[in-house]
Amino acid sequence: MTTGPELVCPAGTPASLRAAVDAGADAVYVGFRDETNARNFPGLNFSRDELAEAVDYAHAGGSHVYLAVNSFARAGDLKIWTDAIDDGARIGVDAVILSDIGMLAYAAETHPDLRLHLSVQASAAHPEALEYYRRAFGIKRAVLPRVLTVDDIRRHGDRTSVEYEVFVFGGLCPMAEGRCHLSSYATGKSPNTTGVCSPAASVHYEDGPDGLVTRLGDFAINRVAPGEAAGYPTLCKGRFQVAGQELHIFEDPVSLNAAEVMKGLVDAGVSALKIEGRQRGRSYVDRAVRTMRSLRDAALRGETPDASVLDSLSEGGRRSTGAYKKEWR
Amino acid sequence: MTEDLSPAVRDLTEATRDGAGDLGLLSLGPLLFHWPAERWRDFYCQIADEAPVDTVYVGEVVCPKRWRFNRPHLQTVVERLHKAGKTVVISTPGLVSEEEDLALVEELIDLGLPVEVNDIATFGVLERRGRRGAVAGSLLNVYNEATLRYLAGAGVERSVTPSELPGPSIHALAAVGEPALEVQVFGRWPLAISARCYHARAHGRAKASCRFVCGEDLDGLPVDTLEGQPFLSVNGVQTLSGAYACLTGEIATLRGVGVAGFRLSPQDVDMVRMARVYRDLLDGRLDAEEALGEVEDECPHVPLANGFYRNNPGAAWVEA
């Protein structure tokens, strides 16, 4: 059995799920192949049959499976979302991860024994919010938005019985998740509505005199000089003109690596450490799970893990501890 | 703070406690920017005296550090608005993560005015006090009938649609009936909120030592593309649209499907004029084209957009 927080790992495909289970993930989170989850990318996610097989495989390997139904149900089309919850319950997932109040109400009423986790997309950043969700819908755990410092998490934890799950590796949203309409402002599609941010179909590259211009919808969101490294063009990592300067005004092209603050998170009593990246491949999942396990175990021994061991897994960009340190703000 | 209000105001607020009363057709949303306190006071007094709006939202949605400047003027403003016959709703912070945020929520709630809730934590505080929220603000994620029905059960009387909600969703929600819907029809849309202060970041300062640099940009700090195209607008920890929402061409349809309220979000333009334009449009004294002409005339420096409603990128302008 594990001691300390469980490791919650992403799986975008059945192969990735098997890799995560084999590598010793305590839990794996997945989504159905439709707009009900916040990683609705082509070629990703699970059919109903694939999920049933995956749950059997994970349970045989001693891992839990959490089903993310964490986009916001579209008015007039609720059945797509309620079906996802019903099917998750029928297949026997260990929890569903929800963000939509309407879907939380549905799940609590229809499946009173189904364990509910509050998605990061619900952006519940204070124990008052978590306790409200607990009283209203019986949530057992919340994935915390990436706006809190380690100190905030420690202080807040004493004031709620809701378990905390925190991101420790992968993408870094500088905005409160689930409350961001930047992508839909530029492209018409957003995480909340269609499960995508800065969708690839809206990205275009143009060679210009000063380098490669990246366009998202009608807007130039970056310009990359020849030889300059460039990650995926997410809107909030773009470069803009602000107050007479060219700035990454929202966030530098960084990704989250919380290894440096892992001991603080463990000491703060978080229940689960989450790795982002359902869009990443099987080998990423395998290596990320193994590496993160060793980092967690180091933190449990009281050591500060070496953050650099994760650098080769990053999608590019410098590593950042994000909002976990106050100076990020 | 309730004790500080005059007896007349206190009677009014006790009478309407939690229930918002008649919110009417046309509202002025909370001022999102950090204006000098005297200007804040004078703005609301002018609105009270001259703007044909039914409801005025007053409070602080973006940054709790700003409230100390406006707090001393609140009583004057609320009294003046009440005397002018306006319904006053108190708007609360959009992201509650720190104790400072929660303290402001508690202070604003305890004024005893009807409350606009912008973070679920505020529902929690209200519930523990045996109170309810009158209005669910646009920063809450109300995307569908199931969520709207839950809010009706929680006593919410009006729900302001999220910025990105497309027309078909607004129509489906309006058909639910309760709570009634309010849609923003003028001003920059709130697009995102963060723990990070982008105003401080743009000026190379830490959030903790921002020296209220957000107060220098009465209409937000422009974020343009590298090609010089207006795109977004920074307001402290909040990001707004570069364009002003302008739904002059959609209001007739929205009313037809049962949308009850239309919100003007304050910008650094003549808001009394904008209130008159939208009131005249609602009352049939201006048609949509004339109203658009008035908005364009008042805001020549800012692009107008209706894309979210039209199921397009939000920044788009789609001809009616």
From TrEMBL, chain A:
Pathway noted in the entry: Cofactor biosynthesis; ubiquinone biosynthesis
Binding site for [4Fe-4S] cluster: 173, 180, 197, 236
Gene Ontology biological-process entries: proteolysis; ubiquinone biosynthetic process
GO molecular function: 4 iron, 4 sulfur cluster binding; metal ion binding; peptidase activity
Source species, domain of life: Bacteria
Needed co-factor(s): [4Fe-4S] cluster
Keywords: 4Fe-4S, Hydrolase, Iron, Iron-sulfur, Metal-binding, Protease, Ubiquinone biosynthesis
Region (Disordered): 308-329
Keyword ATP-binding: no
PANTHER family: PEPTIDASE U32 FAMILY, UBIQUINONE BIOSYNTHESIS PROTEIN UBIU
Summary of the function given for this chain in its UniProt record: Required for O(2)-independent ubiquinone (coenzyme Q) biosynthesis. Together with UbiV, is essential for the C6-hydroxylation reaction in the oxygen-independent ubiquinone biosynthesis pathway.
Stated family: Belongs to the peptidase U32 family. UbiU subfamily.
Complex formation: Forms a heterodimer with UbiV.
Protein name, entry field: Ubiquinone biosynthesis protein UbiU
Organism: Rhodothalassium salexigens DSM 2132
Gene this protein is translated from: ubiU
From TrEMBL, chain B:
Domain of life of the native organism: Bacteria
GO biological process terms held by the UniProt record: proteolysis
Any one GO molecular-function label of the UniProt entry: peptidase activity
Keyword Methyltransferase (UniProt): no
Protein keywords: Hydrolase, Protease
Signal peptide residue numbers: none
Xref: NCBIfam families: PRK15447.1 (NF011991)
The name this protein goes by in its record: Collagenase-like PrtC family protease
Natural source organism: Rhodothalassium salexigens DSM 2132
